[in-house]
Design the sequence.
């Protein structure tokens, strides 16, 4: 069964796009078939994969507005087993254009239904808001992953996101579940990072992934080369963390501690 994971947090700059790009790459390296849907009008996910954001190309806006099918908007990346649906600024207009449309919260769900069976994982990179685009993503998803920056305001807004998830479960998607909270930008030199980690783990327990993503300059610079950090520098701390996270997710999904599949990532 395909797992559709929405990466959501109303706070910007917490690592949603970075995680979508690099976790997807890590899972693809383990031989999983992965699709990433850029559902943010800024289109940073598209840039990170080196996909040119041309206004006239088929993209997530066309998919949401039912002007194109999923197969028509999927673009191959330079990562084996990994495809992407790119985004452009036009997607920002969907929030207004869909207001008078019936069942507007289910447009993405309808577009993906029966079309993602060939993938093991589908990641939806949500915008930093709880608007109609994020609502579509949560309605279409089987799971939601919450990247959380290891800084002072990390917990602020998290309760509101959880309330939104509960509302979606009650009215639109009863099977939606929290796959986990991912601590990002962890800095071992900063005591505050450890304080935030302890606080989050105390409140959320095993809903927090064991793997944490460190603050790492190679992760930050990789998008400027149009490639995931695992292709930019597989040996850096950021790449190794995302490889470890991919392994943790596979173990969780398989519910076994057996040996993982072999992995191939170009150095």
Sequence:
């Amino acid at each position: 069964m395909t797992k559709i994971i929405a990466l959501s947090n109303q706070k910007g700059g917490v690592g949603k796009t970075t995680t979508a790009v690099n976790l997807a790459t890590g899972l693809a390296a383990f031989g999983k078939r992965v699709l990433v849907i850029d559902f943010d009008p800024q289109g940073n996910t598209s840039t990170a994969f080196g996909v040119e954001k041309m206004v006239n190309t088929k993209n997530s806006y066309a998919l949401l507005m039912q002007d194109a099918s999923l197969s028509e908007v999927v673009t191959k990346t330079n990562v084996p087993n990994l495809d992407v649906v790119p985004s452009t600024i036009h997607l920002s207009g969907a929030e207004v254009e869909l207001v008078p449309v019936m069942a507007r919260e289910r447009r993405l769900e309808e577009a993906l239904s029966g079309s993602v069976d060939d993938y093991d994982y589908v990641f939806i990179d949500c915008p930093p808001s709880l608007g109609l685009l994020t609502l579509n993503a949560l309605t279409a998803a089987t799971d939601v992953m919450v990247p959380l920056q290891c800084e002072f305001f990390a917990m602020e807004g998290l309760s509101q996101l959880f309330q939104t998830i509960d509302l979606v479960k009650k009215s639109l998607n009863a099977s939606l579940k929290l796959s986990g909270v991912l601590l990002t930008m962890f800095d071992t030199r900063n005591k505050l990072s450890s304080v935030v980690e302890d606080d989050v783990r105390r409140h959320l327990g095993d809903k927090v992934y064991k793997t944490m993503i460190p603050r790492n300059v190679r992760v930050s610079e990789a998008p400027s080369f149009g490639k995931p950090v695992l292709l930019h520098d597989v040996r850096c701390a950021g790449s190794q963390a995302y490889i470890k996270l991919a392994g943790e997710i596979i173990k969780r999904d398989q519910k076994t501690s057996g040996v993982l599949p072999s992995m191939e990532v170009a150095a």
